Amino acid sequence: MWHTTDFVPAAERAYVTLMMGIVGRALVASSETDPEIRDGLAAYPEGFRIQMTVDPGGPAFTVRCLGDGRVELVADDSEPVDLRVHFKHRTHAFLVLSFQEGSARAFANNRIYVDGDVSHAIRLLRCLSRMETLILPKLVAEHAVKHYPALPLSAKVPLAARIYEHFVLNLVPGARA
Amino acid sequence: MNAAKSFYEFFCPVKVIAGHKALEHMAFELGTLQAQRPLIITDKGVREAGLVRHVEQALEGTAVTLAAVFDDVPADSSVETVRAAAALYRARQCDAIVAVGGGSVMDTARAANILVSEGGDDLHVYAGAHNLTRRLRPLLVIPTTSGTGSETTMVAVISDTERGVKVPFTSRVLMPDAAILDPRMTLALPPYITAMTAMDAMTHAVEAYIGLSANPLSDAYATAAIRKIAENLPRVMEHPNDANARLELAQASTLAGVAFSNSMVGVVHSLGHSLGAVCHLPHGVCMNLFLPYGLSFNASVVGERIGELLLPLVGPRFYAATPDAQRPDKVVTALHHLRDQLWQHCQLPRTLQETGKVRRDQLQRVAELTVDDGSVIYNPREVTVADALELLERAWA
């Protein structure tokens, strides 16, 4: 017999898996297009690996820093990472990735913990907040970030459009060659 | 009215033994932990001040034999120091550690306890968050300042001088079995250090109360700490030999330690960590410099919470006579007044200029470090580099 209690965890798992993939790719696209995010990520040395994961066993994404503020997704996660940000449980990841709880609030609620230098994690979360501010509608982004900055539509839309453009182009192998 | 807290965690398994003749409880506590040969870990300043002698005297004639004293802890503890302490522990066949000192001594004791409990000499294996799971050897801590609150935290930070990095360790098993607060250990503390460390404790409590992780349990500890410091710090400044007031400050420090280790701290600490790193100022001095400005900065987001602090700071009569809307400003005024008192007593700097150690061209670097500090995420208001720079300018003169 089918129960909603069976459906909810499965849907949550599917949503979190999908969103982790989107966040990883959006971070790559943002690092290629937004100067503020690129400045933030430029502080990580070349080759620095960052992983965001959901305990236990994923989903996860790993990016490698190129040293100039850009990052690239890494398919092979067998190499050691320099900074790993964990969600303690899939439901905690769901709260954040469905924008019901901001990342700072999740951090304060101990739903997220860090393996590595905490200041590196703070920088990453700041970049993710900036990304959410740009790519999400204001009504949604206000739930996701601690403070929604004064960002006029005339500035936000072109930046968001470029991130979406790079996001799509990165999905197509060779599209930007 | 405050909304109900939607989620929180609170953890403090440290037994607190506080009061006059508290040191004499040490032998019993070690006995209950099946320990008879403790190693004391301390620093040379604490030993030369005669404070280790109080501990030795408290153990005389008991079933506990003091096996050795390691007094070579520097201000910023290192992996080499930890290894040397662990080697002495093993050579003298110790079975417990008693840390007598401040934050660096306690960090050394925690890290040495990792090595003597887990075996080996490689601390790095256990670095990071929650990589220790087994119970460690018995550890008692005896603070000799009233400020850090280290006696109730689960963190140790040790410098790896070879690699030029600070290595953090976080685990619940790093928490001591007991903290012993005895006024004899802080009675001879000079006024300047007393004031500086007490303002560190005050900042722990205030930031724990207004931060994102504040919760009903940490609130209780934070407000109790603020009340004790507000009442007893001026008293100790006037009468340094007042043992009861000294004990109250020691308890306030521990209360604030419990509060902030569960609720964390905010922008005042972020600024302080960064200023300390760039200009090498003591942490407590930095806290005194930034506390009122940090509160003003956060007032637009948590004004009501800040206003509530007027009660423990100045007492019920003034609190009741102050309209709600004015309370946040009055809290800031009360802290400015306290800082002025401390300046008169011991010249604890109130501005960056008064420190004589900060240049204006360093402020930009301090501001940049501030927004990457681990505490800043717990601050209720988002902090940008421009915000940090503005706060530094306010604290300039």
Give the topology:
The complex is a heterodimer of chains A (177) and B (397).
Chain A: H1 4-33, H2 35-41, E1 49-54, E2 60-65, E3 71-73, E4 83-87, H3 90-97, H4 103-108, E5 112-115, H5 118-135, H6 138-144, H7 153-171
Parallel strand pairs in A: 1-4
Antiparallel strand pairs in A: 1-2, 2-3, 4-5
Helix pairs in contact in A: 1-2, 1-3, 1-7, 2-5, 5-6
Chain B: E1 15-18, H1 26-32, E2 38-41, H2 44-48, H3 51-59, E3 68-70, H4 79-91, E4 96-101, H5 103-118, E5 128-129, E6 139-143, E7 155-160, E8 165-170, E9 178-181, H6 191-210, H7 216-238, H8 243-263, H9 267-279, H10 283-308, H11 310-314, H12 316-321, H13 327-346, H14 352-355, H15 363-370, H16 385-394
Parallel strand pairs in B: 1-9, 2-3, 2-4, 4-6, 5-8, 6-9
Antiparallel strand pairs in B: 7-8
Helix pairs in contact in B: 4-5, 6-7, 6-8, 6-10, 7-8, 7-13, 9-10, 9-15, 10-13, 15-16
